[in-house]
């Protein structure tokens, strides 16, 4: 083979690779999106099984109650759903009588376990287990500091799940979704229609501007890559980890120079690593993709269970 012929072959191979790479990337993205939808469908099925067994959806978050110095009965929607998506063994290990025991064991702790169904393959998580060091300036109680497994999904809290406001009212929480502090929502409470009401959605763990602003605007709070700890129950901050809201549009990213309100809006924004939108589970048990150009008013209508709005997810 002459040099000219070799160069021609190399050029042809390069062209073929150039043509194949976008197709492979597109196929991978489609596969990831379908895996994510399947995760949400299974989570919806688990939630309906829970409802069949208890007569209601699981609480969004139940904060621990102190008993003789022990934080007890702390829970959230993911903890309650564990036995319904084939994590019965993990659920048996969850200690309601002393929540401190769920942190014991380092990366082997109960709350540090990685749950595959809670992870989207397109979520750019730098680590699937994160640590809150004991010496951290975080407002998180000392007893709960340790390793936490991450999640790519959150329960629909409605129009706002953070900032919660002051106890005991926590007036900043709208409580118009499905999951919120001490929630006890039943199917018959979803008067807007279960096929028109969000149950779960995706959380996108990439926002450079948020991470740039977070140390100044939210000192001691978690960076974006550490939001979404599935077993977090220690304090009202649980809402930021296990629920999402519609204060902003799908795939909202922190604007340059954001203030505290814009940062809070981003903490629980729905979003994904899928091009053009995000996947959602609906209260009827279905799961589908919703485009990011959906008007905020329509997204908020989908997030409320009894707002009397007419809303469709295109």
Architecture overview:
The protein has 314 residues and is α+β, with helices and mostly antiparallel strands. It has one domain. Helices cover 30% and strands 12% of the residues. The protein has a five-stranded mixed beta sheet. The protein has a two-stranded antiparallel sheet with strand order 1-4. The longest helix is centred in the first third of the chain and has 52 residues, at 3-54. The model has no long low-confidence stretch (mean pLDDT 90).
Primary descriptors:
5-stranded mixed β-sheet; 11 strands; alpha+beta; two-stranded antiparallel ribbon; 7 helices; 314 residues; single chain; 12% strand
Topology (elements, then pairings):
Elements: H1 3-54, E1 61-62, E2 65-67, E3 70-72, E4 75-76, H2 77-81, H3 88-93, E5 129-131, E6 147-149, E7 153-156, E8 198-202, H4 208-217, H5 238-242, E9 243-244, H6 260-267, E10 277-282, E11 287-291, H7 296-303
Parallel strand pairs: 7-9
Antiparallel strand pairs: 1-4, 2-3, 5-6, 7-8, 8-10, 10-11
* Alpha carbon gyration radius: 21 Å
Number of strands: 11
State the helix count.
7
> Share of helix among residues?
25-40%
Q: How many structural domains are formed by the residues?
A: 1
User: Which strand order does the major sheet show?
Assistant: 9-7-8-10-11
Quote the distance from N terminus to C terminus: 57 Å
Short description:
The chain has 7 helices and 11 strands. The protein is α+β, with helices and mostly antiparallel strands and 314 residues long.
């Amino acid at each position: 083979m002459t040099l000219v012929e070799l160069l021609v072959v190399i050029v042809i191979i390069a062209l073929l690779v150039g043509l194949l790479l976008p197709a492979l990337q597109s196929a991978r993205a489609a596969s990831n999106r379908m895996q994510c939808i399947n995760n949400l469908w299974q989570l919806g099925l688990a939630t309906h099984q829970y409802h069949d067994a208890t007569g209601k959806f699981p609480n969004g978050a139940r904060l621990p109650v102190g008993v003789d110095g022990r934080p007890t009965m702390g829970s959230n929607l993911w903890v309650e759903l564990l036995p319904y998506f084939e994590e019965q063994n993990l659920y048996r290990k969850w200690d309601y009588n002393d929540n401190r025991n769920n942190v014991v064991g380092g990366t082997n702790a109960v709350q540090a376990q990685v749950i595959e169904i809670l992870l989207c393959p397109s979520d750019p998580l730098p680590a699937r287990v994160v640590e809150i060091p004991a010496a951290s300036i975080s407002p998180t109680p000392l007893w709960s500091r340790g390793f936490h497994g991450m999640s790519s999904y959150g329960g629909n809290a409605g129009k706002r799940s953070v900032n919660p406001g002051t106890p005991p009212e926590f007036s900043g929480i709208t409580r118009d979704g499905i999951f919120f502090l001490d929630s006890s929502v039943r199917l018959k409470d979803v008067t807007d229609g279960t096929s028109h009401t969000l149950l779960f959605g995706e959380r996108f763990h990439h926002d450079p501007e948020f991470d740039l602003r977070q140390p100044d605007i939210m000192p001691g709070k978690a960076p974006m890559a550490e939001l979404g700890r599935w077993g977090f129950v220690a304090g009202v901050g649980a809402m930021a980890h296990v629920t999402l809201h519609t204060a902003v549009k799908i795939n909202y990213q922190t604007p340059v120079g954001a203030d505290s309100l814009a940062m809070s809006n981003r903490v629980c924004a729905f979003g994904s690593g899928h091009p053009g939108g995000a996947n959602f589970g609906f209260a009827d048990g279905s799961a589908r993709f919703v485009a990011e150009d959906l008007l905020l008013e329509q997204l908020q209508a989908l997030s409320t269970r009894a707002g009397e709005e007419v809303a469709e997810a295109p």
